[in-house]
Design goal:
555 residues, alpha/beta, Rossmann fold, 22 helices, 17 strands, binds thiamine diphosphate
Length: 555
């Protein structure tokens, strides 16, 4: 009889469900699970000590590979450090398998160290949790439960699940044989999303001035083609966040530059129907507020779950469908005789704004936005861009990102894990990854640079603008008398020393000329990961804000 521990079989179940990458954090309680996973010939297991970094890296890996990534950690508070990345995965619909090692059940609540109530601790941010006692031989029923919960992670809406695994400490083989278990895909039955396309008539869209909004979506060339087609229909305008990965000419990715003009001309620009696709709400707060404030339109949300998500307070219908199926349906049923000019008026406005914007950006004095405008034009086509929150993603929304793949944690995260996510992504990507980050975000997640995963294909640009620039721009914070001290401030970081300590090449630029002269080398060098620091000073937000104001004025 072949000896197999429960954890060996769990490792096989992981592989059978499509997991290829596992990130384990160091600990003794989790050792049995780690040993089994790393002993599996087809699982790629790496160790990252900081669980927050581990979980964000796993998120980046799942974003890049479109496969579930597994996490393993030890008992106690370790798992709580997974929470920010798990929450992002939950709201963005990214599958992740979280395995937390726990103590034997009878030593919980004895006031022992590193022991908390782990089961259910992540319940608000995972699709489902199970508690498995692997201190004894696991039964077929236990393995069925594990297979089922993993298949649930992979079924619509995809998302993270939590397996809390009670384990004996130690490295010696357990002296028992657990149940034989068929770990192939037999139990993994992934239901297809039910489509309710019949819930609307062709005429309901064909006759209405329709605004389609695209939130965050993974890059998908078939999706781009469909969007291109739909965005050419006369009664439809497509407004998309730059993280929709549909950055094509007939889609409006910079709504912020148009919003004042649109608000001033409701008869021309107000939609009768708004359809939203993708998991996230708009980056432009003013666009979201506009959609909340205007009357007389209906909102249809295309979603992979039936629960109503009434972001704009106009929700009329939830259409359960995947985005591509829905767009195909619209494209196939388009009314070719329609002579609506809704699309045309929006497109004319957008083209005009683009011309004004490109002049204003070219003339902008040295600042964050001037630097981003230079950088974006020089990023080689093969690069994926990862971006932190704060101003960076807003700068990119203004300049555009050409056709680069672009990712940012726009689900529910703030500044907590951009570097880890980008490094995780780049660790499994065949092509180079560029992270553009604010300096506060980069400091917050600096542990990622020490995670031992830096690949030569990873490039990082930090906009060193003396802390949280966004607070100097936002109405709610900019006039606070202690703004710099209480909101913006970060210590003076010696980035050159940081780069040296993690073996990254280092460049810096303090003006446009310096930037132009270092960019070529920054992108071309491919033997080590590289850090470029862009130094600007306070005043950036005024320059950025004035460009947007001026575009709106000149329209
Ligand atoms: C985890 C988390 N903590 C706090 C915040 C609040 N917050 C929003 S933006 C920001 C500052 C961002 O600064 P930086 O990364 O330097 O970007 P910049 O605004 O300068 O572009 C902070 C602290 C957040 N979003 N997320």
């Amino acid at each position: 009889m072949k000896f197999e521990e429960s954890t060996d079989i769990i490792a096989k179940i992981l592989y059978g469900s499509g997991v290829r990458h596992v990130i384990a954090s160091s600990g003794s309680r989790s050792l049995r699970m780690v040993r089994s996973a790393s002993g599996h010939p087809q699982l790629n297991v790496r160790m990252i000590v900081d669980e927050r970094v581990a979980a964000f890296s796993a998120l980046g890996i799942s974003d890049c590979t479109a496969q579930p990534t597994a996490l393993i950690c030890t008992s106690g508070t370790a798992m709580l450090n997974y929470a920010p990345a798990i929450a992002e995965a939950y709201y963005r619909g990214v599958p992740m398998i979280i395995i937390t090692a726990d103590r034997p059940v009878d030593i919980i609540d004895l006031n022992d160290g590193q022991t908390i109530h782990q089961f259910h601790a992540l319940d608000n941010i995972v699709k489902m949790s199970i508690d498995i006692d692997a201190t004894r031989p696991c039964s077929k029923n236990d393995f069925d439960k594990i297979s089922d919960i993993i298949s649930f992670a992979l079924s619509p809406r995809k998302g993270p699940i939590h397996i809390n695994l009670h384990l004996e400490e130690g490295n010696e083989a357990m002296d028992y044989q657990c149940a034989d278990y068929e770990t192939e895909f037999s139990r993994l039955h992934i239901p297809h999303s039910t489509l309710s396309m019949s819930s609307f008539q062709k005429s309901e869209i064909a006759l209405k001035k329709t605004l389609i909004f695209l939130g965050q979506m993974p890059f998908d060339s078939e999706m781009i083609q469909l969007v291109e087609h739909v965005a050419g229909l006369p009664n439809i305008v497509v407004v998309a966040d730059i993280v929709s990965n549909c950055n094509i000419p007939n889609v409006i990715t910079d709504i912020e530059s148009l919003i004042d003009h649109i608000k001033a001309h409701p008869d021309v620009f107000n939609p009768e129907l708004v359809i939203t696709l993708g998991k996230t709400s708009p980056i432009s707060r003013r666009f979201k507020e506009w959609l909340r404030s205007i009357d007389d339109y209906a909102h249809w949300r295309v979603n992979d779950k039936p629960e109503p998500e009434n972001t704009y307070f106009h929700l009329e219908r939830t259409i359960i469908a995947d985005e591509k199926t829905f767009l195909k349906h619209i494209a196939d049923n388009a009314d070719k005789t329609n002579v609506d000019i809704f699309n045309r008026v929006w497109m004319v406005l957008n083209r005009k704004a683009d011309v004004i914007k490109s002049n204003l950006l070219a003339e902008a004095p040295w600042s964050d936005i001037a630097a981003i405008n230079v950088i974006i034009k020089q990023i080689p086509d093969s690069y994926t861009i990862q971006c932190s929150n704060g101003m960076s993603i807003r700068y990119l929304s203004l300049t555009g990102a050409n056709r680069h793949r672009l990712y940012c944690n726009r689900g529910v995260n703030g500044i907590d894990g951009s570097t880890s996510t980008a490094i995780g992504y780049s660790s499994v990507s065949d092509t180079p990854t560029l992270l553009i980050s604010g300096d506060m975000s980069a400091l917050y997640d600096i542990s990622a640079l020490y995670s031992g995963q830096l690949s030569p294909k990873f490039k990082m640009i930090v906009i060193a603008n003396e802390g949280g620039e966004i607070f100097r721009l936002t109405k709610a914070t900019r006039n606070y008398e202690k703004r710099e001290e209480m909101l913006c401030n970060i210590p003076d970081i010696k980035w050159k020393d940081v780069a040296k300590s993690v073996n990254m090449d280092y460049f810096e630029a303090q003006n446009k000329k310096e930037l132009e002269s270092v960019l070529g080398a920054f992108f071309i060098k491919n033997d080590r990961s590289t850090l470029l620091i862009i130094k600007t000073s306070i005043g950036n937000s005024k320059i950025y804000g004035n460009i947007i104001k001026e575009i709106n004025n000149r329209l």
